[in-house]
Amino acid sequence: MLAYLVRRLLLIVPTLFGILLINFLIIQAAPGGPVEQMIAKLEGFEGATSRIAGGGAEVSVAGSNYRGAQGLDPDLVAEIERMYGFDKPAPERFWIMLTNYVHLNFGESFFRDAKVIDLIAEKMPVSISLGLWSTLIMYLVSIPLGIAKAVRHGSAFDVWTSSAIIIGYAIPAFLFAILLIVVFAGGSYFDWFPLRGLTSNNFDELSLGGKIIDYFWHLALPITALVIGNFATLTLLTKNSFLDEINKQYVVTARAKGLSKNRVLYGHVFRNAMLIIIAGFPSAFIGLFFTGSLLIEVIFSLDGLGLMSFEAAINRDYPVVFGTLFIFTLLGLVVKLIGDLTYTLVDPRIDFESREG
Question: Which residues form the ABC transmembrane type-1 domain (predicted)?
Answer without folding.
Answer: 124-339
